[in-house]
Design a protein that fits this description.
This protein has 199 residues and is an alpha/beta fold. The chain is 42% helix and 14% strand.
Length: 199
């Protein structure tokens, strides 16, 4: 049996740890990089390093950014009394593509999922409650995904906000059950924002 060099085995292992990348895809990626021009491989490595060096999280909304606060939180033209709660930074991009929403965001960085060992304390829910407690927010739009974990997260957040005088709404059901916001088209997301309802 031919031994695979340690460097290749390590790279395949690292690729396999990425979401959605299985062992076969990881192997294909590793062997592709072996054949790719040196400049392309170096550029990929530099991009990964730069990602970790330059990207941080906004201290207000917890979205990814190169500056703190992020451009959305720093924009005085945004509606500062409305906060849209999403699971991931990609969801912010999806909603921004609609050009319908002009408020602020709060990124939870996941959803409650007992199967994956993710509980409320693993998310940025406490930080959201603190933002609402400050008293300037009048509406919280729950824009978590429509699957089981997203629904559980939305219900948990809603219960945490019951003690405050804040309107809690949920995106309308224009989004498919079990779908992710990042894959929704702009028109569907715009209608879901317009048709949000009380929880």
């Amino acid at each position: 049996m031919v031994a695979v060099p340690d460097a290749v085995t390590r790279l395949i292992g690292e690729f396999s740890r990425l979401p959605g990348i299985g062992p076969k895809t990881a192997s294909r990626l590793a062997y592709y990089l072996l054949r790719a021009p040196v400049e392309q491989v170096k550029s990929l490595g530099e991009a990964v390093t730069e990602l970790r060096d330059r990207i941080t999280f906004c201290s207000q909304c917890h979205n990814i950014t190169e500056q703190d606060p992020c451009p959305v939180c720093a924009d005085d033209r945004r509606e500062r009394h409305v906060v849209c709660v999403v699971e991931e930074p990609l969801d912010v991009l999806a909603i921004e593509r609609t050009n319908e929403y002009q408020g602020l965001y709060h990124v939870l960085h996941g959803a409650i999922s007992p199967v994956e060992g993710i509980g409320p304390d693993d998310l940025r829910i406490h930080e959201l409650v603190e933002r609402v407690k400050a008293g300037t927010i009048t509406e919280v739009i729950l824009a978590t995904n429509t699957g089981l974990e997203g629904e559980a997260t939305a219900m948990y957040v809603q219960r945490q906000l019951l003690a405050f005088e804040v309107r809690v709404t949920r995106l309308a059901r224009g989004l498919p059950m079990g779908g992710d916001l990042e894959y929704a088209d702009a028109i569907t997301l715009a209608r879901a924002l317009e048709g949000r309802r009380e929880m």
